[in-house]
Amino acid sequence: MLRLVYTTPKANPTSPLVNSRHSSSSPFHTSPSKTHPSLSLSSSPRRSTRFKMSSSDSLPPLPENRTVLGVGSMGLDFLAAVSSYPKPDDKIRTTSLKVQGGGNASNALTCAARLGLSPRVISKVADDTQGKGILEELQADGVDTSFVAVAEDGNSPFTYIIVDNETNTRTCIHTPGYPPMIPDDLSPSSLSSALDGARLVYFDGRLQETALLVAQEATRRNIPILIEAERIREGLDDLLNLSEYAICSAKFPKAWTGAETFPSALVSMLLKLPKLKFAIVTLGEDGCIMIERSIEEAPQTEEMDVDSLFEALKQRKDDSITRPTYVSSPVTKLRANGIGTVCGRLFVGTAEKIPPSELVDTTGAGDSFIGAVIYAVCTNMPPEKMLPFAAQVAAACCRGLGARTSLPHRTDPLLAPFL
Fold first, then answer.
1. N or C: which end of the chain has fewer CB atoms below 10 A?
2. pLDDT score of 384 more than 90
C-alpha cells in the first residue's frame, strides 16, 4: 500500500539526497485516505510558524568541500518598477528604480555564496564601466571571478526589466554582450584550475560551446553536473546528457519531451537521460514537482500512473499553511502512459504564500531556487528538506526589487527552521 507523506520541514541528517527512501520507522501517524482507497496518508503534527533568531553556532556545519563552479550568463539589470505596464506611446514614471548585477548563473552563484558555499564563475564581460561593476558586485558577495574573460572592446550584457506592480510580473529586454564567449577564451590551464576541487558544476544553458567543453572535462573528472533547462536552446541536449541533476522552468519539460503533463514529462526526461538522479520543474506560486530516481527497486514495489498519483498528492496539500512544505510518495514504479516507467519518488512542493503587501518583484526567484538546490546538493540535504528550503529562499528573493536585493544569508532567521 502506498503512503503519501505530508510534512513541514524536518531535519533528516542521515538521509542522502540521492536514492533516499522512506524509512519503515517513520514517526508519522498513518491514517486511511478518504479520497483514494489504495492510498494512506502520513502527516506531521502542526508546527509553530514563529521564527527564532539564528546564530552561526546553532547552524549545521558547512561541508569541507564547498567549492562550486558555474558557467553561464552575467550582466547588469536596470530595473524599473511601475504602477502598471505602459500602453504603446505612453509616458509614465517609475515607482522605484534599481541598477544591479544580473544573469541566471551569476544570480544563482550569488545565492550559493550567501548560503556559505565558495562559487567560481566562468563567463565573459567587456572592459567597460558595466563590466567592472558586474565583477565588483560578484566579488563583494564572495564569488571568484578570476575565470571570467574580459574583452578589451565591445559591450557587457545588460537587461532592461519592467516590474509591473499591478500584475506582479516582470518583462525583460536583454542586450547580449559582445563579442560572445568562445572556447578559446578559456585556456586549458584556466579550465583545469576552475575545476580543481569543485564539488559540483552548474550550467544555465548559455555559452553553449564553452559550456560543453567544461562539462566534458567535469565528466572526465567525475564531478556532478546540475543543468538549468529554461527553454530549448542550441547545445542544451549535449549538456543534459552529461547531467546528474536538472531544474526546469514550466515551459521546458512538456516542450522538450512532447508529454502532455508535467509528471509524465519528468518521467520522460528520466528515461531519456539515464544519468539524471532527479528532475524538478518549478511552477512559481504553484510550487514545484520533482521525481527522484531510485536505483534499487524494492521487491514489492507497486506500479502507479504518475498523473493519477500527482492528483492524489495535490489533494493532500494543506492550503492553510503559508510556509513551504511538500507531499511525497514512497518509492514506486511511476508509469507515464505511452512513455514508459521509472522507479522513484514523486514530490509536490509548495511555495510560500507571500502576503501581497510583501511581494515586490519575482525577478531572479528561479535563480535563487537553483542556488539553494546547489547548496542542498553540496550539503547532502534530502529532498524532504531541500524543496521547502529552496522555496523559502526563492520567497525571500521576491521581497525586494531585483534578483539580489533580498537574497538571504545563511544566518537569516527566516532560514533557521529549514536548516
1. N
2. yes
Q: What are phi and psi of 113, to 5 degrees?
A: -65, -45
Nearest to 344, CA basis, from 83, 18, 14, 5:
18
Q: Is the dihedral of CA 294, 29, 4, 45 positive or negative?
A: negative
Q: What is the pTM of this model?
A: 0.85
pLDDT at site 57: 61
Average the pLDDT over 69-74 and give the result.
97
- Count of Cβ atoms closer than 10 Å to residue 84 Cβ: 11
> Residue 112: beta bridge partners?
none
| Percentage of the residues of the chain whose pLDDT score is greater than 90 | 81
Give the pLDDT confidence score for residue 25 in this predicted structure. 33
Residues 246-274 have pLDDT tens digits of: 999 999 999 999 999 999 999 999 999 99
